[in-house]
C-alpha cells in the first residue's frame, strides 16, 4: 500500500525567505505535508481517530449510490492528502460510504488520488480539484472541514457553512476543526507561546517558526471559538459543541 513518505521532513522555512512570500499548498508543501502536520498541529491524530467513531453514530445510509445501494455520503472538504478519507475508509466496508474529497490545490489532489486509489481501490472515493465555495453539495450524512475554513476570506465563511447545513440530512453532522485565537489578549498570548513551545519541542527552529508565521500572515485568518459557534447558530445548526481542544486548536461537532 502507498503511504505518505514520513522521511520527507518539513524544511521549507530553514532558510530566510522574502518577507512578501506567502504560504501556498504547492508541490513543495505536498512533499513534506505529513511531517508538517504532525509537528505543527497539536492533536491532529486524535481528531482523525475520532472521525470513524462519529461516523458510526451518525452515518445512517440515508443516500443512494450510483448503483442504487443505500450508502452514507461523506464530504471531506479541503481534503489535502486525504487523511480523513483514508481514516474513514480504513474503518468502513467499501459498500458503506461514498466519499467525495475536495481540495483547491492540484498538487494535493494529484497525490491524494494516488494514495486513496492505492490504499482503498474498492472504496467509492472521488477526489475533486475545486474551490469548495463553487461546489454544489449533494445530500450527505457527514461533512469534514478540517483546518480549511481558516483559509477562506472571512466574508465567505457563512455561505460555505450554509451550503453544508442545507446538504446535511437530518441527523447528519459537521466536524469543524480550526486554529483559533482567544478574545482575551493575555490569554491568547499565553496560548500562542505554548504553541510555539510545542513546535520547538518538535524540532522547529526560531527561524522556521518565524518564517512560517510570516508566510501565513493574511493567508490563515483565525476566528475565536465564540465566533465559530455564533456562525454555526447563524446558519441553522441549533446544536453544536466543542468536543476537543489542544492549545489554540479546536474541533467542533455540529448536528443537523
From TrEMBL:
Occurrences of domain Methyltransferase (ranges): 74-172
Reaction(s) the record says it catalyses: prephenate + S-adenosyl-L-methionine = carboxy-S-adenosyl-L-methionine + 3-phenylpyruvate + H2O
Keyword Hydrolase: no
Annotated S-adenosyl-L-methionine binding sites: 44, 78-80, 131-132, 146, 213
Entry-linked PANTHER family: CARBOXY-S-ADENOSYL-L-METHIONINE SYNTHASE, TRANS-ACONITATE 2-METHYLTRANSFERASE-RELATED
NCBIfam families: carboxy-S-adenosyl-L-methionine synthase CmoA
Name of the protein in its database record: Carboxy-S-adenosyl-L-methionine synthase
Organism: Psychrobacter alimentarius
Amino acid at each position: 500500500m502507498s503511504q505518505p513518505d514520513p522521511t520527507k521532513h518539513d524544511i521549507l522555512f530553514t532558510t530566510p525567505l522574502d518577507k512578501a512570500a506567502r504560504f501556498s499548498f504547492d508541490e513543495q508543501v505536498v512533499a513534506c505535508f505529513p511531517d508538517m502536520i504532525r509537528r505543527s498541529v497539536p492533536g491532529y491524530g486524535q481528531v482523525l481517530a475520532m472521525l470513524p467513531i462519529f461516523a458510526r453514530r451518525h452515518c445512517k445510509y440515508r443516500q443512494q449510490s450510483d448503483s442504487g445501494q443505500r450508502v452514507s455520503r461523506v464530504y471531506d472538504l479541503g481534503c489535502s492528502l486525504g487523511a480523513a478519507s483514508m481514516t474513514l475508509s480504513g474503518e468502513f466496508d467499501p459498500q458503506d460510504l461514498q466519499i467525495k474529497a475536495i481540495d483547491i490545490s492540484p498538487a494535493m489532489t494529484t497525490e491524494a488520488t494516488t494514495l486513496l486509489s492505492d490504499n482503498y481501490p474498492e472504496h467509492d472515493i472521488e477526489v475533486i480539484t475545486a474551490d469548495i465555495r463553487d461546489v454544489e453539495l449533494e445530500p450527505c450524512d457527514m461533512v469534514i472541514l478540517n483546518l480549511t475554513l481558516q483559509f477562506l476570506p472571512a466574508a465567505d465563511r457563512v455561505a460555505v457553512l450554509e451550503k453544508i447545513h442545507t446538504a446535511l440530512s437530518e441527523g447528519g453532522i459537521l466536524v469543524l476543526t480550526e486554529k483559533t485565537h482567544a478574545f482575551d489578549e493575555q490569554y491568547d498570548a499565553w496560548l500562542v507561546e505554548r504553541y510555539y513551545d510545542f513546535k520547538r519541542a518538535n524540532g522547529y527552529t526560531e527561524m522556521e517558526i518565524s518564517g512560517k508565521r510570516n508566510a501565513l500572515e493574511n493567508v490563515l485568518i483565525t476566528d475565536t471559538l465564540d465566533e465559530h459557534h455564533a456562525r454555526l447558530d447563524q446558519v441553522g445548526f441549533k446544536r453544536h459543541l466543542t468536543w476537543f481542544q489542544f492549545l489554540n486548536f479546536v474541533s467542533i461537532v455540529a448536528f443537523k
